[in-house]
Structures are given as structure tokens and as C-alpha cells.
Amino acid sequence: MLNALEVFTIVVVGLMVGVEFSVAFVINPILNALPGDSGQLGRSHGGRMLGAVMPVWYITSLVLVAVCAIAGWRSYGNGLVVTAGALLILSVIMSILLLVPINNRGKTWTPDNRPADWKQQMNRWDRLHHVRVAVIIAAFALLVAALT
């Protein structure tokens, strides 16, 4: 049973990391290169869509890692699982304090109502998101190292 939980946790966290990586290094660069208002409209739509899904995914990942840590409390490598959980907590805190406020503004923007500094706000979101991606990649690497 513990092995199934560990595999499920690795898959859920790994898919989350993959989505966030692709947003940072594939989707947003594509949107930024689109002509006219297309990129901004795409980012607004992506903010609405992923803004609804990712909080659930982050919390689910964190809960699964916590369950793995508790279930394998006396296991070799459990310190890595706990550290991975701490990094996921850090990513959630970063999200709530830094990224979500920008996303909440950006997902309501249209070409008619966006602020003059919208590109600077999106660039700030991108930089913060890159840091968050690095944090969750580290968490995922520790999780895989501990559970495989």
C-alpha cells in the first residue's frame, strides 16, 4: 500500500512540476511572442484557467507528501520527504503572497482595461514564477530520491 501511495504522490507532484515548467519555459514565451493583444489575452485566459486548477493541485501535492512522510516516518530517506514538503509549503506561501495577487489582476485584463504597466507586472510574475518552479523542481527531486 505504501508503494502505491509513493508512486501516486510522485506522479501527482511530477505532473504539477511539468505543468508549471511548461508555463514558464514554453507557454508564456509563446504568448509573449504573439502579435498585438493576443499574448495578453492568452495570459488572461491562462490565469483564469490555471488559477482555478493549480491551488487544488498544490494543496493535493502537499497533502500527499505529508501522508508519505507520516506513513514512512521511520523509513530511510524520510528527511528528504519532509524537506520536499517544506519546499512545497514555501511554494504555496510564495504563490499566495507574491504570484496570486498579480495573477488575480492579470486575469481580468482586456486590451481596454489593462494598466499601462501590464507588461512589467507580467515580467515580475514570470521572474517570481521561475523561482517557484526552481523550488518545486527541488522538492520533486528530493521526493523522487527519497521514494525510489
UniProtKB/TrEMBL annotation:
InterPro entries xref list: Anthrone_oxy
Residue ranges the record marks as coiled coil: none
Alphabetically ordered keywords of this record: Membrane, Transmembrane, Transmembrane helix
Protein name, per record: DUF1772 domain-containing protein
Domain of life: Bacteria
Short name of any one Pfam family annotated for the protein: Anthrone_oxy
Stretches that traverse the bilayer: 6-31, 52-73, 79-100, 129-147
